[in-house]
Amino acid sequence: MAHITPPFSIIVGSMLGATEYVADAIKAKCDELGYAAEVYFQPQLCEIDRNTTWVICTSTHGAGDLPDNIQPFHDDLTNTTLSNTYYVIGLGDSSYDTYCGGAETMHKTMQQCGASALAQPKLIDVLQHPIPEDIAVDWFAEQLA
Ligand SMILES: Cc1cc2nc3c(=O)[nH]c(=O)nc-3n(C[C@H](O)[C@H](O)[C@H](O)COP(=O)(O)O)c2cc1C
């Protein structure tokens, strides 16, 4: 069983901004709990410490696709070996057949890289949860408890 290893790197995939609010709220929770955390709104693999626990927060766009800002980061990962731990928090809309496909893609790729999931991805349906950051933070706090 993998263990939580702060500090956290909060990695954001967002087109319209909703997932940025989630990332900000996770960062605020880390601050409150005294955990060091850094948010990457334009993630680049070379800039992110691979010894941190990654909290990947991403929405889904197109037809199950990753947001444009996180796609290059994802593509760089495909040739990378990792040994860190991570969480995935996905925002999506359950009216799409490709519900939270972007989050599922990030989870699959992280596993292929050798990273260890600390939990199954937390998928948040924005149709049911108009304030997704509240759900995300409650879940994240539970993980750390
Ligand atoms: C053009 C478009 C395509 C979308 N495609 C999907 C999809 O394939 N699967 C899904 O679960 N959600 C999809 N969504 C819903 C978004 O993931 C959801 O609105 C999310 O909250 C957007 O977060 P963001 O503002 O961080 O980008 C789509 C939204 C838009 C506007």
Total helices: the number is: 4
Bound heterogens, unique:
flavin mononucleotide
CATH architecture: 3-Layer(aba) Sandwich
Would you tell me which CATH topology applies?
Rossmann fold
Low-confidence stretches: none
Structural class: alpha/beta
Please report the total strand number as a whole number. Answer: 6
H/E element sequence: EHEEHEHEEH
Helix content: 25-40%
Give the distance, in angstroms, between the N- and C-terminal Cα atoms: 16 Å
Question: What oligomeric arrangement do these chains adopt?
Answer: single chain
Q: CATH superfamily name? A: Flavodoxin domain
What characterizes the major β-sheet? 6 strands, parallel
For this entry, give a set of tags.
6-stranded parallel β-sheet; binds flavin mononucleotide; single chain; 145 residues; Rossmann fold; alpha/beta
Describe this structure in words.
Strands 1, 2, 3, 4, 5 and 6 form a six-stranded parallel beta sheet that branches. The mean pLDDT is 95. The chain has a single domain (8-94, 104-123), classed as Flavodoxin domain (Rossmann fold, 3-Layer(aba) Sandwich). Helix content is 34%, strand content 21%. It is of the alpha/beta class and 145 residues long. The chain is globular. The protein contains four helices and six strands; from the N terminus they run E-H-E-E-H-E-H-E-E-H. Helix 1 runs parallel beside helix 4 (132-144). Flavin mononucleotide binds next to helix 1 and strand 4.
Summarize the structure.
With 145 residues, the protein is of the alpha/beta class. The chain has helices at residues 18-33, 71-77, 101-113, 132-144; strands spanning 8-13, 37-40, 53-59, 85-92, 116-117, 122-125.
